[in-house]
């Protein structure tokens, strides 16, 4: 290999040698800091959920208001991701990473100390905004820190495992903090995590060199996509408590769809597009974004309805419910590591994502066998392990492929698309599966004794089973669609940021 071989960014390899970069020697500590920040973002989607009954009792807000504690976070997070992904390309990933950590810590402290419902909702919205600043910066830092093929695979395996298991970890941690301390600690815990991450980032992450061709901010595109994503996320979140025929549901969904269509049209003619079409129209990256979107939908079939089943039907405590998910978390992280380090460099993302979604579909179908007399060991553990294997095979390879082959000044927005896909998918999955489950439960009760607790319990189980079948169908469809879209081939062993190499 010649020292003067030129890499994709246009500089000789000897000038890019990691041995010349003192920060590169501490890259695994950098991974720990980035992973800590990512864990904080994803566990906050669920950590507060388990604490909601206690928070509601303490702050005296209604059942109708309760959803806003969750919705405020997802609205801010989902609608601002692309904006802050592009801003991180403009002002630097390190700066945005630190700003996001500080914002998240401040919002968490405000929420933990909230004297009333209104302040808590504001704090959750600010948390979502902090997460939207932090998430794309974290993933793009990971992408640019690890360039060696094998090391990059290891880093993405760890990161993908955290992204896939964070919701389950949030449920366990939320249960422990609520049961043994106070619901406020589900928010205060982020302050401690943020302080650790801020200290690590300040020392370990190098300052970004000035990029001459740094893009400008696309203001019309920013307004269109932020408003469009807000409409989509709000519309689906509203569908949880309102019928699909309500103007506050379909109106926001339709408006959001129109705005996103206008955004896509604008991106083809904008001088400095917020989301350059080259980022999403590449088959490997586009298919990876779609995989994250579909997995976000199906994943909530596990966490949401199995959580209900364990606590409502089997009467598990919040802590026991969190512990019940740990085997899935362990298998997910192990699978992500093996698939991404050993298999992805050899065969690429396409077969892994196809196989992972097919396996997850099988696990969801297996879960449909639950009943009033089911036990964890006989009826739940097996499906959870299978789903963990499937999701582990999808998350890390999809994240790796979705951030490969992009120009350096597009790294932030490409990373933001990963999080946007998963977040919007999760919002759609929660509302869609909730609606399907509720309709199934209502239909089951027609003509039955509504005062019989066994009948009512069976109606609930039937609603969960229907949700599991739909989640299985979504995963199965995702396997086929992503299998058709993704380009076959393995990553270029010389340049891991290049497109897959296809061998005849």
Topology summary:
Elements: H1 13-16, H2 27-43, H3 52-59, H4 63-91, H5 93-112, H6 117-145, H7 149-180, H8 185-204, H9 219-238, H10 247-267, H11 277-281, H12 283-313, H13 318-324, H14 326-347, H15 349-367, H16 376-402, H17 411-445, H18 453-485
Helix pairs in contact: 2-6, 2-7, 2-8, 4-5, 4-6, 4-9, 4-17, 5-6, 5-8, 6-7, 6-17, 7-13, 7-14, 7-16, 9-10, 9-17, 12-15, 12-16, 12-17, 12-18, 14-15, 14-16, 15-16, 15-18, 17-18
Notes on the structure:
It is built from 18 helices and no strands. By secondary structure, it is mostly helical. The chain folds into two domains: about 25-205 and about 275-485, Up-down Bundle (Growth Hormone, Chain: A), CATH 1.20.1250.20; about 220-275. Helix 4 (about 65-90) runs antiparallel to helix 17 (about 410-445) and helix 12 runs parallel beside helix 15. The chain is globular. The protein starts with 12 loop residues before the first helix and ends in a 19-residue tail after the last helix. Residues about 1-20 and about 495-500 have low confidence and may be disordered.
Provide a concise account of the structure shown.
This protein has 504 residues and is mainly alpha-helical.
Strand content: under 5%
Q: CATH fold name of the largest domain, please?
A: Growth Hormone, Chain: A
Give the CATH superfamily of the largest domain: MFS general substrate transporter like domains
| Fraction of helical residues | over 70%
Helix and strand content put the structural class at mainly alpha
Task: Give Rg in angstroms.
Answer: 22 Å
| First-residue to last-residue Cα separation | 25 Å
Query: Main β-sheet, in a few words?
Result: none
CATH class of the largest domain: Mainly Alpha
Quaternary structure of the protein: single chain
